[in-house]
Design a protein that fits this description.
This protein has two domains: 74 residues, no CATH class; 154 residues, Glutaredoxin (3-Layer(aba) Sandwich), CATH 3.40.30.10. The protein is built from eight helices and nine strands. The strands form two sheets. Strands 4-3-7-6-5-8-9 form a seven-stranded mixed β-sheet.
């Protein structure tokens, strides 16, 4: 029997909470030091509602050398993290091209659609985009940029909408937006968009008041003392089973069985 207890604390906070994340990590370090089975990862990442941070060390598919993507006041951006080998990325990228072909004249100087590929090589992106005729989009290869880490891109496709003031208006899967063309028009007017993945309207107020997220539907606050007692009782059952020599001998060649107790 292996009686392992693991404590896992993971949370990605918005960039405005960077000081909170730092303070927590500093204060928790002496508490967990020397204890096995404890994994604590509290970080702050850029997300919806945060100001866009310039992405550096990209490579344009039309030129060599590192490139920086610095936002200009008044511009609205759609930034699409994608890959040529990613099947779900193809339809959104084709839609990006179609939007630009349709709105080329009235979006000129106002709206930019930018593709950032996470492919292994720039050449793969060039070949793919030329064959698909997706050349109206501003394409870049991620190269040595740390943009995926900065913006928490763990999978593709992953889209960001940047408003005229350089604030991230939306971050997430493009399928979560029903009409990206309408979103870009709305942001171009200086208006806001709402819904899943968008900047919360009262984020600043919630931060100041220390308001916590509501308990999700279907969950209830747990009695940790009662749960600890239940776990202790269950551990006694395993201890008794281990003492049974006939049983342990008979089951020595059996596949392992796992009893996993999760407290969330």
């Amino acid at each position: 029997m292996e009686n392992n207890v693991t404590l896992s604390v993971k949370k990605d906070l918005p960039a405005v909470d960077a000081d909170r994340a730092k303070k927590f990590n500093e204060e928790i370090k002496p508490v967990i030091e020397g204890i096995t089975g404890v994994d604590v990862s509290v970080t702050s990442k850029l997300g919806a509602g945060d100001p866009y941070s310039t992405i550096a060390n990209l490579v344009s598919i039309k030129a060599d050398g590192p490139v920086e993507l610095a936002h200009k006041e008044g511009e609205v951006w759609l930034v699409d993290f994608w890959a040529t080998w990613c099947p779900p990325c193809q339809a959104p990228m084709a839609h990006n091209q179609a939007m630009l072909e349709k709105r080329e004249k009235d979006w000129a100087g106002k709206v930019r659609i930018i593709g950032i590929s996470i492919d292994q090589t720039k050449e793969a992106v060039v070949t793919h985009c030329e064959s698909k005729k997706w050349m109206s989009i501003e394409h870049y290869h991620r190269a040595t940029s740390d943009c995926s880490k900065v913006y928490g891109v763990s999978g593709v496709p992953h889209v960001m909408l940047i408003d005229k003031n350089g604030k991230i208006a939306f971050m997430g899967h493009p399928a979560n937006r029903k009409d990206l063309e309408a979103d870009l028009d709305t942001l171009s007017k200086g208006e806001t968009i709402s819904g899943e993945g968008c900047a919360p309207e009262n984020a600043a107020a919630d931060l100041e008041t220390g308001k916590e997220e509501a308990i999700p539907e279907g969950f209830k606050e747990s009695d940790s003392a009662a749960i600890s007692a239940e776990v202790a009782e269950l551990a006694k059952v395993f201890e008794e089973l281990i003492k049974n020599e006939a049983l342990t001998s008979e089951t020595a060649s059996f596949p392992r069985a796992f009893c996993v107790l999760v407290l969330q």
